[in-house]
């Protein structure tokens, strides 16, 4: 076996190396005096002589708060942390477009940039730390990748930073050579591409098949005929025709006979309404979805998809005065909230 | 517990709690990567480690550095990877800014070869005097003594390609004697270096040992197409580290015009899936390399990294960056534990 790398040795000493690699390194060290000596040396105790040395620097309170608080809706000017598939970056939100937002990545360290990078001064930053805003890399990001909210940049400041030709270029505060800026830029591009994988839409396969209204029209039937034959309330039939809810299994069987459609399709889930799709992608639901995904051994997207039908079912059970456009936020909260 | 705590400490703002964990990581990094100590020696004292971690946390860019770690890390393991990278960059930046390692070596050579001075156990004393305890008094008195000594100008011309010593050997010896007089005792090389560096207003110098300590090529690496510059290689490494394993598998198809051949059978994906992923990868790389002068070199670097990755069973580029302590250069291997005289 070849020598472990430096990083592996550091991880081994700190107890971070996973099995079976940890066992391989242990066995290697048992037969390699050189590596054994390195491990012994790295593992020797370090006396922390500064344990009572004052650390005169504080973490930004907005950062601490952002990691603790439940995030609100995504809005223009927000400073958000995006996280997806093992990568994370800070961004500044420019525009919201339904299930996606136009964002510009922000970097606090290093303060490097290209010719289109702009400086967000410390006084204007929610963290009271200067940041490089890479406006040249501005692009769409799915809302489902948003994770934590750390405050907002004032509208006039946002306009100045994101406007082309702004005179607050980063050039004056670049600390590092062009190579470091190139490395940061490459990393940001890779991560922004990774965030695209967070794009989510529930399966739409049933949309065309679940066209009960179209089938009624073809057969020359009226919604009232459906209500009579299936013993359903007229309002419930309306919901089905508007794809707000589906049939129960009993209703689906009867409807299939009446309409000449596949009973499995009719008892399947109707497509999710746009408002529900948008609500399920809001950042505040991510912790619960991630938790459900982890418990079920599925992806976050799959957990999100699985939440659709229970929420629709709850919406369908709403009757009487509560009818109308469902309160999707409330329903999703009821579905995903603490049990 | 260390494994479970560092990212949590950073995010909840308990940066003081992060300190001992970072100290340990920093100590392991400097030992295993053979970074020269700030005083220029091969071993780091406890004070030097302590100072360095304090600076890491609290110098003018400390808060931004810690915030960036808290933002970019997605879990504790990832946090440690980022910390390692950040520590390495931090130390390299410090090394580039601090001229003392080189001056320290020069000073030691001067003291070793001069008949009026003795040098042992990292201490300087007058020749023939007993080896007693090193000066432990107020160091503020020592610079004043050094200021009173007139020094000769540097012995190398203005058109010299590299910087030489800041003054001649006789002046260095005279300075040492002045400081020893003020101290009234032997003086540690570390302290003498600090005092005389301040006196001589040493400008930036690059210590050659950092070339190997950083494990980064300063020349070029070569593939069959020719040399890949150091800058292109480093950017290639940055990009490589952001690719997932599927993308790494596809690297060798980049630039082939989308043609895939028998090598596809090595990738557990259908042809259309391979084409889709390859198109996405090429788009990503194209944007990442937009404006880069040596984009072709970066792509060749990625090919090299791919080859190493396949050979190493998926562990490059760490395998590529081999420490000089693996027999390539043992001259600077630490021989003493930090803090021991």
Give a written overview of the molecule:
The complex is a heterodimer of chains A (339) and B (341). Chain A has 339 residues and is an alpha+beta fold. In chain A, strands 1, 2, 3, 4, 5, 6 and 7 form a 7-stranded antiparallel beta sheet that branches. In chain A, strand 1 and strand 2 form a beta hairpin. The longest helix of chain A is centred in the middle third of the chain and has 18 residues. The radius of gyration of chain A is 28 Å and the shape is extended. The two termini of chain A are 50 Å apart. With 341 residues, chain B is mostly helical. Chain B is elongated and about 80 Å long. The C terminus of chain B is likely disordered. The interface between A and B is large, with 63 and 76 residues.
What is the element layout, followed by pairings?
The complex is a heterodimer of chains A (339) and B (341).
Chain A: H1 6-13, H2 21-31, H3 33-43, H4 61-68, E1 78-84, E2 87-97, E3 100-107, E4 117-120, E5 131-134, E6 139-142, E7 146-152, H5 155-162, H6 178-195, H7 205-209, H8 212-219, H9 223-230, H10 234-241, H11 249-259, H12 263-266, H13 274-280, H14 286-296, H15 300-316, H16 328-336
Antiparallel strand pairs in A: 1-2, 1-7, 2-3, 3-5, 3-6, 4-5
Helix pairs in contact in A: 1-3, 2-3, 9-10, 14-15, 15-16
Chain B: H1 2-12, H2 15-32, H3 46-58, H4 62-72, H5 76-97, H6 100-113, E1 117-120, E2 123-126, H7 141-147, H8 169-183, E3 187-188, H9 189-200, H10 209-213, E4 220-223, E5 226-229, H11 230-242, H12 245-250, H13 271-288, H14 295-311
Antiparallel strand pairs in B: 1-2, 2-3, 4-5
Helix pairs in contact in B: 1-2, 1-4, 1-5, 2-3, 2-5, 3-4, 4-5, 6-9, 7-8, 7-9, 11-14
């Amino acid at each position: 076996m070849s020598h472990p790398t430096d990083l592996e040795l550091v991880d081994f000493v700190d107890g971070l190396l996973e099995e079976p690699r940890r066992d391989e390194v242990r066995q290697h060290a048992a037969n390699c005096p050189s590596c054994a000596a390195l491990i012994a040396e790295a593992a020797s105790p370090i006396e922390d002589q500064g344990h009572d040395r004052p650390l005169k620097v504080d973490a930004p309170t907005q950062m601490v708060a952002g990691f603790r608080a439940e995030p609100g809706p995504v809005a223009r000017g927000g400073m958000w942390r995006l996280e997806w598939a093992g990568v994370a970056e800070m961004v500044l939100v420019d525009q919201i477009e339904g299930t996606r937002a136009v964002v510009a990545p922000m970097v606090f360290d290093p303060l490097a940039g290209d010719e289109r990078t702009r400086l967000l001064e410390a006084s204007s930053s929610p963290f009271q730390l200067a940041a490089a805003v890479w406006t040249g890399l501005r692009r769409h990001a799915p809302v489902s990748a948003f994770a934590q909210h750390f405050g907002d940049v004032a509208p006039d400041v946002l306009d100045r930073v994101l406007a082309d030709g702004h005179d607050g270029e980063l050039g004056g505060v670049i600390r590092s050579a062009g190579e470091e800026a190139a490395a940061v830029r490459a990393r940001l591009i890779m991560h922004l591409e990774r965030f695209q994988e967070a794009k989510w839409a529930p399966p739409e396969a049933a949309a065309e098949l679940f066209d009960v209204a179209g089938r009624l029209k073809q057969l020359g039937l009226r919604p009232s005929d459906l209500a009579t034959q299936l013993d359903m309330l007229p309002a419930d039939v309306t919901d089905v025709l508007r794809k707000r809810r589906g049939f129960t299994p009993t209703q689906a069987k009867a409807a299939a006979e009446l309409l000449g459609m596949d009973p499995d399709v009719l008892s399947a889930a109707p497509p999710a309404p746009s408002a529900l799709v948008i609500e399920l992608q809001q950042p505040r639901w991510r912790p619960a979805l991630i938790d459900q995904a982890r418990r079920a051994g599925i992806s976050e997207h799959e957990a999100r998809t699985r939440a659709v039908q229970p929420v629709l079912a709850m919406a369908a059970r709403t009757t009487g005065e509560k009818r109308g456009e469902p309160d999707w936020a409330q329903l999703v909260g009821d579905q995903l909230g603490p049990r | 517990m260390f494994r479970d705590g560092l990212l949590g400490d950073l995010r909840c703002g308990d940066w003081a709690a992060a300190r001992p964990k970072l100290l340990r990581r920093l100590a392991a990094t400097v030992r295993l990567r053979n970074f020269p100590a700030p005083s220029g020696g091969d071993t780091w004292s406890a004070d030097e480690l302590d100072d360095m971690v304090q600076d890491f946390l609290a110098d003018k860019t400390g808060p931004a550095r810690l915030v960036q770690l808290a933002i970019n890390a997605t879990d504790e393991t990832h946090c440690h990877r980022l910390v390692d990278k950040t520590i390495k960059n931090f130390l390299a930046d410090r090394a580039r800014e601090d001229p003392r390692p080189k001056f320290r070596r020069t000073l030691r050579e001067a003291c070793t070869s001069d008949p009026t001075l003795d040098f042992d156990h990292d201490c300087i004393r007058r020749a023939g005097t007993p080896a007693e305890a090193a000066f432990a008094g107020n160091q503020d008195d020592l610079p004043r003594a050094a200021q009173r000594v007139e020094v000769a100008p540097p012995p190398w011309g203005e058109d010299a390609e590299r910087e030489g010593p800041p003054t001649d050997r006789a002046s260095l010896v005279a300075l040492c004697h002045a400081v020893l007089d003020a101290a009234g005792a032997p003086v540690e090389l570390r302290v003498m270096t600090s005092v005389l560096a301040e006196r001589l207003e040493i400008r930036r110098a690059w210590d050659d040992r950092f070339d190997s300590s950083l494990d980064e090529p300063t020349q070029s690496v070569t593939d069959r197409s020719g040399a890949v510059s150091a800058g292109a290689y480093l950017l290639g490494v940055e990009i490589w580290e952001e690719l997932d394993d599927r993308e790494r598998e596809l690297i060798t198809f980049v630039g082939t015009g989308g043609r895939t051949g028998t090598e596809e059978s090595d990738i557990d994906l259908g042809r259309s899936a391979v084409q889709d992923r390859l198109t996405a990868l090429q788009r990503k790389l194209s944007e990442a390399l937009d404006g880069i002068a040596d984009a072709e070199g970066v792509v060749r670097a990625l090919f090299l990294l791919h080859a190493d990755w396949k050979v190493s069973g998926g562990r490059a580029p760490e395998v590529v960056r081999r420490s000089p302590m693996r027999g390539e250069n043992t001259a600077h291997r630490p021989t003493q534990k930090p803090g021991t005289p």
